[in-house]
């Protein structure tokens, strides 16, 4: 299978503190790869490196055959950050149409993106008047409007109700089936089963890189929370507290 993203021996420091420790992985083209791990594990840092906005100490990140951050990749990568990245003084539809115009696209593509994230009824509302979950969806509409070849989503379903989360994941799967490569971070394990592959990160190191079924089989359990803990213990990393009390990856 052709790879869309290749990360080799990636080392990133924030000040004097190491965040990623020689991390390597390959993300197949047309797949949905889940990036799982507790807060502070290095998920967002890895995503920033893939997008090309993270200063790295050593190692390489290659996206669609080019170094991450290459100017020719700008029109081919969509990036959704945890913080909404849209204009509060524009409506949802105006934001989508603005970002569509940046890619030389028209109103029909923008309106389709708004509809795909479930905001068609709120299209005429100012983003500044929306709820937090709605603002996140407005940002997602702008990220997917160009149908990018690589889509990097940092916790896109936080604050969304279960029905909408299911609809968004169906949208992610549709994008992958049409050839896009998605990297989706989450700290909620029940979303991991929706992915083709999982990258499990703990304290800046990769502790698993496989399909959800293979990760569970390797750990000898059908529960991904427990699989995560088992893999941590095998590597001699202190296990998190209160495991199993929630559906989130423990931190």
UniProtKB/TrEMBL annotation:
The keyword Nucleotide-binding applies. Residues 5-228 form the ABC transporter domain. It holds the Pfam family ABC_tran. Keywords: ATP-binding, Nucleotide-binding. GO terms for molecular function: ATP binding; ATP hydrolysis activity. Gene3D superfamilies: P-loop containing nucleotide triphosphate hydrolases. SUPFAM superfamilies: P-loop containing nucleoside triphosphate hydrolases. This is Multidrug ABC transporter ATP-binding protein. It comes from Catellatospora methionotrophica. The lineage of its organism: Bacteria, Bacillati, Actinomycetota, Actinomycetes, Micromonosporales.
């Amino acid at each position: 299978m052709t790879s869309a993203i290749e990360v080799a021996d990636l080392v990133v420091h924030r000040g004097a503190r190491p965040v990623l420790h020689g991390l390597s992985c390959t993300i197949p083209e047309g797949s949905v790869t889940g990036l799982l791990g507790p807060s502070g594990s290095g998920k967002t840092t890895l995503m920033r490196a893939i997008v090309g906005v993270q200063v790295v100490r050593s190692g390489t990140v290659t996206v669609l055959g080019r170094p991450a951050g290459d100017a020719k990749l700008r029109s081919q990568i969509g990036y959704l950050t945890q913080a909404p990245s849209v204009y509060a003084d524009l409506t949802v539809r105006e934001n989508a149409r603005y970002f569509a115009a940046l890619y030389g696209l028209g109103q029909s593509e923008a309106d389709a993106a708004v509809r795909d994230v479930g905001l068609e009824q709120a299209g005429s509302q100012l983003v500044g008047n929306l709820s937090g979950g709605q603002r996140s969806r407005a940002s997602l509409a702008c990220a997917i409007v160009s149908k990018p070849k690589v889509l990097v989503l940092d916790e896109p379903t936080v604050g969304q109700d279960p029905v909408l989360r299911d609809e968004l994941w169906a949208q992610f799967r549709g994008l992958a089936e049409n050839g896009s490569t998605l990297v989706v971070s989450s700290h909620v394990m029940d979303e991991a089963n929706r992915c083709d592959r999982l990258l499990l990160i703990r304290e800046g190191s990769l502790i698993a890189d496989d399909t959800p079924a293979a990760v569970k089989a390797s750990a000898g359990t059908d529960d991904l929370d427990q699989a995560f803990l088992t893999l941590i213990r095998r590597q001699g990393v202190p296990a998190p507290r209160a495991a199993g009390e929630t559906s989130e990856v423990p931190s």
